[in-house]
């Protein structure tokens, strides 16, 4: 496993973390100002958005864009 995502959609603010394998341990990919997190394995930056549907249910979308080159 070179990369994994951790998502918790229970709270009002979705918790979305991306981790990549470091030399010794896992390293969290920090979000940019708009909340996109680099996902190097995909070569994209991602964020998850909740779209309300009804009073209880919701729908979720993964938004992506080309990762910024460093």
Describe this structure in words.
With 70 residues, the chain is an all-beta fold. It contains no helices and 6 strands. It has strands at 3-8, 15-21, 26-28, 37-39, 44-52, 58-66. A 3-stranded antiparallel sheet has the order 1-2-3, with no helix packed on it. Strands 4-5-6 form a 3-stranded antiparallel sheet, with no helix packed on it.
Strand residue percentage: over 45%
H/E element string? EEEEEE
Number of strands: 6
**Overall pLDDT:** 89
Radius of gyration over alpha carbons? 13 Å
Question: For the largest beta sheet, what order do the strands appear in spatially?
Answer: 1-2-3
Large-scale geometry: elongated
Helix amount, in percent?
Answer: under 10%
Largest sheet descriptor: 3 strands, antiparallel
Unreliable residue stretches: none
Distance between the termini: 23 Å
Give the helix tally: 0
What structural class results from the helix and strand content?
A: mainly beta
List strands and helices in order, with pairings.
Blueprint: E1 3-8, E2 15-21, E3 26-28, E4 37-39, E5 44-52, E6 58-66
From the structure above, extract its key features.
53% strand, 3-stranded antiparallel beta sheet, mainly beta
């Amino acid at each position: 496993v070179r990369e994994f995502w951790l998502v918790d959609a229970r709270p009002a603010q979705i918790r979305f973390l991306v981790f990549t394998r470091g030399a010794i341990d896992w390293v969290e990919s920090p979000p940019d100002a708009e909340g996109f997190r680099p996902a190097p394995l995909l070569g994209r930056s991602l964020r998850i958005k909740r779209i309300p549907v009804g009073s209880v249910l919701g729908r979720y979308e993964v938004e992506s864009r080309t990762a910024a080159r460093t």
